[in-house]
Amino acid sequence: MCVGTPMRVVEVQGLIALCEGAPGREDIDTALIGAVEPGEHLLTHLGVAIRRLDAEEAAAIADALEAVRLAAAGEP
Questions:
Q1: DSSP structural state of residue 4
Q2: Is residue 1's pLDDT more than 80?
Q3: What does the pLDDT average to over 14-40?
Q4: Could you please report the per-residue DSSP string of the chain?
Q5: CA distances (Å), 26 to each of 74, 75, 76, in order?
Q6: Rounded to 5 degrees, what are φ and ψ at 38?
Q7: DSSP 8-state symbol, 20
Q8: pLDDT digits (tens, 9 = 90+) for 2-21
């Protein structure tokens, strides 16, 4: 199963963005979506930005992924 992870851009150097999200901080390649700015939200997969997200959509995806994690762990 492939799952995209929402992350927020912290710093940008060319087409590489330092982002933060549930997996922590990670360098993300933005070549597929072009230049990004700090504060933007991105949907990422395996270190690559797939598309931009607004803050509301990023939060909804993060909440859904957390619910899946809790369910898989047998937690309420």
A1: -
A2: no
A3: 96
A4: ----EEEEEEEEETTEEEEEETTEEEEEE-TTT----TT-EEEEETTEEEEEE-HHHHHHHHHHHHHHHHHHTT--
A5: 28, 27, 29
A6: -55, 140
A7: E
A8: 789 999 999 999 999 999 99
